Amino acid sequence: MNNIKHVFLISLVFLTTSTVTQAQSGKKNKVNPPASGAQDRAFWVKTLYKIAYPVIHHLASNTLKKNMATEVAPHYYNNVREVGYTEALGRTFAGIAPWLSLPDDETEEGKLRAKFKAETIQALSNAVDPSSADYINFRTDAQPIVDAAYVVQGFLRAPNIWKALNETTQKRYIAEIKSLRNRTGAYNNWLLFTAIEEAWLLSVGEDYEPYRTMTAINKLNEWYVGDGWYSDGSSFSTDYYNSYVIHPMMMDILKVMVSKKKMSEAQLTKATDRAVRYAQITERMISSTGEYPPIGRSVTYRTAAFQTLGQIALDQKLPKELSPAQVRCALTKVFENMYAGNQNFDAQGWLVLGFNGHQPEIADPYTCTGSLYMATLGFLPLGLPADNAFWTEAAAPWTAQKAWMGSSFQKDHSAGK
Question: Cα(254)–Cα(377) distance, rounded to whole angstroms?
Fold first, then answer.
């Protein structure tokens, strides 16, 4: 037996030495070809489903409160049992909604999507059923203002889901959203949460409070600092809130207001142009190996940092400098780094506090397990059908790859004000 081990070790050393020698002599090892758009899409679907499944499945089964992890940040100041479930639902639904908005088909993805769509409809129904074990809180605390905003953003992104709810459930959502009017939140990006709730009420034929929508749009325009960046309130902070909240909600609010002739098309165009510039910047922040800097607060929201880039791709507004393929490939590499392993999930499949691993010390004091499902917001381009150029174009290097491999790449230009 010892002789066999000795032979094995000699063989291993020889193999290793041979490999190194080949590399040093200039011989190229076999390199796997880049994944196709279809392979990338399959990975995105698998990953989004992996993240969202525990929330949607348990809520659909009335077992969310029983089974959901309730990890909280150090010095956490909310009541996790009152707000954590609302966070999980709202954030997850806003991220999966574009994918669920696609029509049913007989592909494997289509069958999975149809099944998940049915579970999502049941989950949404249970969430506002007072007799349900998983009836969630919209009625107390300020935090539900935030997460109700993501629920209605989901309805705006997937009107087919709203239409699939029965009349009783629809009335319950309308009542829950109106109940939020007795509370206020912070004087920053929170203005957009109340504004999108009022815009959504307008979109479904309900009375809305125009002052809330007007104030949010006007204040955010005042807080615009230039080159694609809004200040989150009167003081500027370098973080990802322009992606977590500001650009996507500004655009979604204005889409409703313009369609209802309450605001001008020029306002939506201006907001979109600003978002396009921010999308350009965030694509350039993805390194050649698919990493991005963990800057500012709320980095535990992970891939929500690319919601604006994803929304611009979803709306097919990418500038000519950004090909759909390079955006797809850049985001795919980020997702692989974050989610191909299990470092960001616990044993039951719930997301854990951290950036890329269990790092609870970096979580902000308002963060719990439910907060983390902002991560789904990075997957908005799944709302583009599989035959869209985003998914069919051949793989392409993104900006940082081109720059670091010595290839020609587009010079960056400020958009100014």
Answer: 19
- 410 closest CA partner among 311, 281, 314: 281
The CA-atom distances, in angstroms, between 179 and each of 142, 174, 281 are: 12, 9, 38
The reported pLDDT for the residue numbered 31 is 56
- Total residues found in the chain within this entry: 417
Confidence check: pLDDT of 240 > 60 = yes
Q: What is the distance between the alpha carbons of residues 69 and 88, in angstroms, rounded to a whole number? A: 11
Dihedral of the alpha carbons of 112, 113, 115, 116, in degrees to the nearest 10:
110
For 192-221, b/e burial (b = at least 16 CB within 10 A) is: bbbbbbbbbbbbbeeebbeebbeebbebbe
Helix or strand or coil: residue 28?
A: coil
Residue 216's alpha-carbon distances to 187, 194, 198, 223, in angstroms, are 10, 8, 11, 10
Return all residues near 334 (Cβ < 8 A) that are at least 6 apart. 286, 290, 291, 292, 303, 306, 378
Quote the pLDDT of residue 410. 93
- Given a cut of 60, is residue 14 above it in pLDDT? no
| Owner of token pair 């609010």 | 253
How many helices (H) and strands (E) the chain has is answered by 17, 2
Residue percentage of the chain with pLDDT more than 70:
92
What number is the average pLDDT over the span 55-79? Answer: 97
**142-196 residue pLDDT tens:** 999 999 999 999 999 999 999 999 999 999 999 999 999 999 999 999 999 999 9
Write the Ramachandran bin of 295: left for phi over 0, alpha for psi from -120 to 50, otherwise beta.
Answer: beta
State whether residue 166 is helix, strand or coil: coil
The residue written with tokens 């605390």 in the block is 141
If one looks up domain 34-404 in CATH, what number appears?
1.50.10
User: Per DSSP, what are the bridge partners of residue 72?
Assistant: 368
pTM of the model: 0.92
